[in-house]
Amino acid sequence: MADFSSTPDRSGLEPELGGIFRDIPERTGFEPELGGQFRQNGVYVDEVTCIGCKHCAHVAPNTFYIEPEYGRSRVYHQDGDQEAVVQEAIDTCPVNCIHWVDYTKIKDLEEVRKLQQIKPLGFPQVHRDPKPKKGHNS
């Protein structure tokens, strides 16, 4: 990556430099890739709930893609599509697994996702207690 620190007319907040802020532990929501102060929320897909219908990727292909290993939707570009298009993609989700979240929380959600066990599509995603509940006959 080019070093722009010696360029006096650059602040580091230019849109083409937005990638350098992705590794900063604290995000403010004012990063260039979010559109500055106007877009302080990011979009997040709960991959455990996702059924891989691909509606979101068809509606907003510059924001969502289908992760190849498990067939679930994932956000790859927060400002890939206009907010109205992303909202339409959210509205088309049959299981409501896509959410607007505070942009500062996305990194935490991504860390939690790394620890989640995602089973292949067609398998139950919810852990079921093998013991029957009281009052239920098996």
UniProtKB/TrEMBL annotation:
Domain 4Fe-4S ferredoxin-type: 41-69
Alphabetized UniProt keyword annotations: Electron transport, Iron, Iron-sulfur, Metal-binding, Transport
Molecular-function annotations in GO: electron transfer activity; iron ion binding; iron-sulfur cluster binding
InterPro entries, sorted: 3Fe4S_ferredoxin, 4Fe4S_Fe-S-bd
Protein origin, superkingdom: Bacteria
Keyword Electron transport belongs to the record: yes
Function: Ferredoxins are iron-sulfur proteins that transfer electrons in a wide variety of metabolic reactions.
Protein name: Ferredoxin
Organism: Aphanothece sacrum FPU1
